[in-house]
Amino acid sequence: MSTATALAHPNIALIKYWGNRDDALRIPSNGSISMNLDGLSTRTTVSFQPSLPFDELIINGREVTGKGLERVSDILDLVRAQAGIKDKAEVISENNFPSGAGIASSAAAFAALALASSHAAGWTPSEEQLSRLARRGSGSACRSIPAGFVEWRAGTCDEDSFAVSIAPPEHWDLADCIAIVHAGHKKTGSTEGHHIAGTSPLQSARVADAPRRLDICREAILRRDFDALAHIIELDSDMMHAVMQTSNPPLLYWQAATVEIFHAVRDWRASGLAVAYTVDAGPNVHVICPREVQKEMEHRLREIPGVQDVLLAKVGGATRMNG
Ligand code: PMV
Fold first, then answer.
1. What is the distance between the alpha carbons of residues 216 and 213, in angstroms, rounded to a whole number?
2. pLDDT confidence band for 99 (50 / 70 / 90)
3. Cα-to-centroid distance, 283 and ligand 1 (Å)
4. Are residues 139 and 247 in the same domain?
5. Is residue 322 part of a domain?
6. Domain span holding position 58
7. How many domains are there within the chain?
């Protein structure tokens, strides 16, 4: 029996990934930029056992079968092929953030799975190989592998589509205040969303303009220019949701409180506070700010009707071995 445990953080996209040029390999239509979220994490233990008849998956103490298990077995198959082994594995995963709180957990889950399973199988991949492997489980997971502020260069095939760190966590002391406005599971997940992105007449314009937004965002991070960052991440989030809302079938992830927060954030910024919003494939709002104003932001967000909870994170490190 061979066992390894890894820990990974989820990440919040500042320039979003939406739509694939290759759905099966999860090669994205455009590059993306994110920051890892310290404070939120997934810890996964993988053990390959000759006696197991099939792979087993336990998430937060509950056995998972069906599609969820299939997605994990697909990654284990890639690892088994690399390592030249046949044993089935037991996978035990725990999130320290409330599950079903509407926080995308697949990025941290597949990043931790990629590292734990490859080490348990006796294969030590490079960071690039690990990012490519995590990408196969969930595109955004490739961005949870490197540390801090991360860019996923879209590439055109399996070999050149992976993420790299553009700045370490200590480069810029930013924070994320995640305003939970709805804790249920979303009706349409991102795998289906990527698949229909091209049905929106706006997607081609969003993709064509992506290199410009990526340049502005990367520069804003490297120069620690919050005002430039605020404008580009709100534009990028709004553009992705415009595509979602105009695809077939249309995807409307926002709730009334989501829009309330957009207005509040813009008012606060107009009054001189460094704050900006971004939203993934769900109704909850990630409010990005420098860490010195995080407490104030948390307090203000909690006063908005419809905000059920606020989770706090700072910029996180790379996926790593744990215990
Ligand atoms: O990695 P996926 O397939 O769950 O897609 C993530 C999509 C968004 O969260 C909406 C954007 C992003 O870049 O993370």
1. 5
2. low
3. 14
4. no
5. no
6. 2-170
7. 2
100: confidence class by pLDDT, cuts 50, 70, 90: low
pLDDT band at 101 (very low <50, low <70, confident <90, very high): low
- Pocket (CB within 6 angstroms of ligand 1): 13, 16-18, 32, 104, 106, 138-140, 190-191, 194, 280-281
Q: Structure tokens of 251?
A: 């995807």
Name the residue with the closest Cα to ligand 1, atom 4. Answer: 190
Count the Cβ atoms, other than its own, within 10 Å of residue 251.
21
Predicted pLDDT of residue 113: 98
CA angle 311, 315, 319 (to 5 degrees): 100
Q: What is the mean pLDDT of residues 50-75?
A: 96
Ligand 1 atom closest to the Cα of residue 11 is: 14
The answer to whether 277 touches 261, Cβ cutoff 8 Å, is yes
Average pLDDT, whole number, for the chain?
Answer: 96
Residue type, 226: F
